[in-house]
Write a structure and sequence with these properties.
heterodimer; A: alpha/beta; Rossmann fold; seven-stranded mixed sheet; four-stranded parallel sheet; 18 helices; B: alpha/beta; five-stranded parallel sheet; 32% helix
Chain lengths: 454, 384
Amino acid sequence: MHTKIVLDEDHMPKKWYNILPDLPTPLDPPLHPATGKPLVPEDLTPIFPMELILQEMSQKRTIDIPSDVQDVLRLWRPSPLYRAHRLEKYLKTPAHIYYKYEGVSPPGSHKPNTAVPQAYYNMKAGTERIATETGAGQWGSALAFATQIFGLECTIYMVRSSYMQKPYRKSMMQVWGAECIPSPSTKTKAGTAVLQKDPETTGSLGIAISEAVEDAATHGNTNYSLGSVLNHVCLHQTVVGLECMEQLASVEDYPDVVIGCVGGGSNFAGISFPFAGEKLKGKHKETEIIAVEPASCPTLTKGLFAYDYGDVAGLTPLLKMFTLGHDFVPPSIHAGGLRYHGDNPTISRLVYDGVMKAVSYHQSEVFDAAQTFARTEGIIVAPETSHAVRATIDEALKCKKSGEAKTLLFNCSGHGNFDMSAYDAFYANQLVDYEYPEQLIRESLARLPKIPGA
Amino acid sequence: MCTIGFLVNPFAGMGGAVGLKGTDGMVEAALARGAVPRAPGRAAETILQVADIGAHFITCSGVMGEDILAGAGIPGYEVVYRPASETTGAADTMAACRAFLDRDADLILFCGGDGTARDVYSVIGDLVPMLGIPAGVKMYSAVFAIHPRAAAGIVREGCTPGGKFLLRDAEVVDVDEEAYREGSLRTRLFGIAKSPYRPGLVQGTKQVFEDSDEERAKKDIARFMREVIEGTPGILYILGPGSTTAAIGEEIGLKKTLLGFDAVKGGRLIATDLNEEGLLGLLEEGTSARLVISIIGAQGSVLGRGTQQVSPAVLRRIGRENVIIVATPHKLAETPMVFVDSGDRDMDLAFGDHLSVVSGYRIAQRKRIGRVEGPERTSQVGGE
């Protein structure tokens, strides 16, 4: 029995899978934040290269991965798929647990799967500098790595709470030649406004996005890059699920349950979209696809399915998605990458349509699972990934109860080697189990004005 | 230079070891039972740790302070009050505090229990910060450091040149010792003092990045609760005692009483300082109501400490699902568990294993519910 299922380099996917043409309900169009009218490609040209804009809206089922991008991805791809024999044994479950390990990339997560093509398309379009935001630092370090490869400058607005919690992530960005700024900052109008209102703010992804977008929009040589949420990002991540499909086929298995953690949705989309596509095409109708989110920021489980901005300042297009409100600043959980008020519109639609489902967990529950995983499988996962681990363990325990030998697959999206302070807090009993007081929040929103254009 | 008013209630804590559950008015009885003073030793543990900070100590003669300062080699201390007898009492504590006030003390550092805290607070109110070195039988008040050495750490931080005290509101809880000895815990919120603290959330480590300013946290809670209250104009809100709920009143623009239960509906204050009868009167059949209460004192008590007006009958009318608990992250960080002691076991059980506590703007924390320790409460506490 295999422990590690490894593909040859020449089996690395040559095309990304685009789920948009297979959706049961077409997506509602993104709207211009000022006019409320559907976006046209030209609206996005100040901050994105045309190739990415076209991918964002493409209805082609597959899109070729440029060979220059493939060359870079080959530094760590195809990534290994593991059978978690030791975890299965520990749980005494009949379930088959597989995990796709994306922590083997140089920055240690799935993020470079999209950072590399985004940097590449920007380089091709003549962009000199890219501005972006980062939550836990995984995206920032991935983009720093990718821009450095293609000779671009990179400015990263890092959410202040993570900037304090994870100093070594910013060190990585520095090694790869990027500038890392704690957000909110006084470098932008959006950041200055937040600081004036609240100098002590912990920051949020929504605020950092506002800063990066403003930076890109106000500098001619600079584009913006987003590490999650958008369709083209999820598209680039589908290499993860496509590889899994081939790896599982090589051991004649297929997942009954596919699991991933969700912040903006990219790692979850990466592992699940190819399997969701099969489900939508009627080939594997029974596959369960589970998105896992923090109880403190439960966008899919407790949010509203509505048009909302992607950032705090309201600079981004309005997207139809599950949202907790663009002004929601989630509490400072250690899984900084999951602190986002919204979600990818495609995932939102698929959850809304019942193709996927979502669950949420508290901080202490997920670290408990991460500890079990580290003590059985060895890998110390990122706090974000620990959410997927928790849900997988729970599914495996359900199998133990029912006696079903289901095949479970989760995206082990990154290692937690720079997150040891979070584990320290877990052992010091200092993890706060934040919650989202849904009922009260709904009541508090009752008197707020509607989002324009929604 | 920092001026510290230092006093010791030498008999604090003596009653505990000899089964008297408190020493108020029981000094002779405690001594007769062979109790040994423990407060001087506790106080000395703190003072020895702050001997070198260069603060100016003002104190009372003999066992009420001077002996400990002299023993620790504190230079230049000044005796500003002399008790008439060696068997000191509440009147001495209060007289000493008046002398400290006259000398513009920056901090009152006292060693004792809840009774001593009450006596100190009754003189100084929130004019001067107070910090307790824990030595009493009961310490439900939030003005106590968790340990004599912790008290020393707080004093050092504030009194070292260039240092400053971070202050927070701390409840002073009054316990009826006579009733306590008879097996019933009757407490009420006596007042809200200013007390220095070290922000545990940012202390030492970087793993949790939180705001150290508790006032801001209160404002965040208040802002959220205002939106909730304004979003539900048909619901009657009963705001309990404490500074967090008072901040909600202030945010709505109402003059809420600090220590009482006040009722708010449709943006108006409709009754203040309600007792059980008054609450029941407002909660007629069919009234949709919510109770907003905070955690009182240092022990994580949600109901039952300082909230006797909310009897089991009142709680049943309101309904468990309509109880909203609020507390700052600072308070919650020091409260590993919360205790629900409504006076009705079934009602306590209805709260389940966890409570959701509103701790910020659109943010709550899940806290485990612990079992109430100490003597059983009697049903008369809730007026049943």
